[in-house]
């Protein structure tokens, strides 16, 4: 584990392996440890895997207030600059997928391929904006523990909570360990997120859309919409998983991702 100063924050990150770069962006309210299986798997198979903690999460500086997706994206670009990573495959789950779409909007020339897991490209609805703002206030009042208890069986499919207690505990630990100020700032930023659908028609790199077949937050229908919005994209539905297929069905997720990566055009 390493850390580095980028602008006003100190960012925690993992940087493992060598070869072409694969950058993994975690979701909310998690940290980079959600990518541990992929960090180990792909770094052992010819990839340099970079997994950062986003601002306000894990070991990265908490900045209270509001964190727009563009701020997360610029933090990521600055980190990769410091690590001398110019071109990369960019993968994100849930909020991480929305940060990936923002990165593509801001600096598409740096991206070799996109992986969008359990995420939505649409702008937030009026009801969604209210819900996120109210949730931000709630997390500041209560902390993350009550929320973590409440949503565990949506993040991880109920059958997997029973069958995979180590995974369930890892997910619960990430959630309850997240800074309320960091989580609230991200929620306020996401409440104002733009509509990425118009930009997706211009995606010119290979794109993989992944979703768990039991995901309640971003159901299969939303992944199908995202897939239809990105020309030439691929869709993989992971059976037996909810919102975190990379942890609930690691072997299946890794196989789909490995196949996608193996077919990317070689860099000149």
From TrEMBL:
InterPro entries: AB_hydrolase_1 (IPR000073), AB_hydrolase_fold (IPR029058), AB_hydrolase_sf (IPR050266), Epox_hydrolase-like (IPR000639)
Protein name per Swiss-Prot or TrEMBL: Pimeloyl-ACP methyl ester carboxylesterase
Domain AB hydrolase-1 residues, every copy: 20-249
Gene source species: Amycolatopsis viridis
């Amino acid at each position: 584990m390493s850390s580095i100063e980028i602008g006003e924050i100190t960012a925690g990150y993992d940087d493992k392996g060598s070869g072409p770069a694969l950058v993994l962006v975690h979701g909310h309210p998690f940290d980079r440890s959600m990518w541990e299986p992929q960090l180990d798997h792909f770094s052992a198979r010819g990839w340099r895997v970079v997994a950062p903690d986003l601002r306000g999460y894990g070991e990265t500086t908490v900045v209270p207030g509001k964190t727009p997706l563009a701020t997360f994206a610029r933090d990521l670009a600055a980190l990769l600059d410091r690590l001398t990573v110019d071109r990369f495959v960019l993968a994100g789950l849930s909020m991480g997928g929305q940060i990936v779409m923002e990165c593509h909007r801001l600096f598409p020339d740096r991206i070799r391929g996109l992986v969008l897991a359990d995420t939505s490209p649409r702008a937030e609805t009026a009801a969604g904006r209210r819900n996120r703002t109210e949730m931000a206030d709630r997390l500041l009042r209560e902390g993350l523990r009550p929320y973590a208890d409440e949503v565990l069986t949506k993040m991880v499919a109920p059958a997997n909570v029973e069958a995979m207690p180590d995974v369930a505990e890892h997910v619960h630990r990430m959630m309850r360990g997240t800074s309320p100020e960091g989580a609230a700032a991200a929620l306020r930023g996401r409440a104002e997120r733009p509509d990425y659908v118009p930009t997706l028609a211009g995606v010119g790199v290979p794109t993989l859309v992944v979703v768990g077949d039991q995901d309640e937050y971003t159901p299969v229908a939303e992944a199908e919409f995202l897939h239809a919005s990105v020309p030439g994209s691929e869709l993989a539905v992971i059976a037996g998983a909810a919102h975190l297929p990379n942890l609930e069905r690691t072997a299946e997720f890794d196989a789909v991702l490995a196949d996608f990566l193996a077919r990317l055009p070689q860099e000149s």
